[in-house]
Amino acid sequence: ETGVTQTPRHLVMGMTNKKSLKCEQHLGHNAMYWYKQSAKKPLELMFVYNFKEQTENNSVPSRFSPECPNSSHLFLHLHTLQPEDSALYLCASSQPPQSEQYFGPGTRLTVT
Amino acid sequence: DAKTTQPTSMDCAEGRAANLPCNHSTISGNEYVYWYRQIHSQGPQYIIHGLKNNETNEMASLIITEDRKSSTLILPHATLRDTAVYYCIVRVTNTGNQFYFGTGTSLTVIP
Are residues B43 and A103, on separate chains, in Cβ contact within 8 Å? Predict the structure, then answer.
């Protein structure tokens, strides 16, 4: 257990659905991250939040919408996804923002 | 961030030490060496990091050469649960937020 939880662990959704991924960290960290890991590819950073403010968006399509209501919770809202968006979505946190990051177990997303 | 080079895969007998090498010949003076591992379909797990001195914790030891151009992660007594992909990352801690995970080394611990 890393102190970072993610729900759901598995999600199957159609291209017209709207769903949300949730991440919660119990470490008292102030920075949270969303990463995407497609099959046989390195992790790709999607979004970064520091003290609830988004500080980085790595050219992520608008069909992915992050939300950080407080420093312990991070959401990724999904709508009108494409099959190529199927991947493992990982949440991480760190404190201070520049030190080692602790990852959650990930949500395995399949878009049909 | 400096590029790292790791072998694609390695095997290790259970109970023996696993020594995972990493080359980072273009590392800068202010870049740290981090090691993470990822067990199949789980999130990456932080293992250890260091700047120039050797480091040890409850999981592993990190040996960094004097010129800092390479390092070795040592798992002293490998178990089957250590089978994973191990990532060596060099990073300046005070700039940016991203860890650049390459393709890593796939370690298989054999019974």
Answer: yes
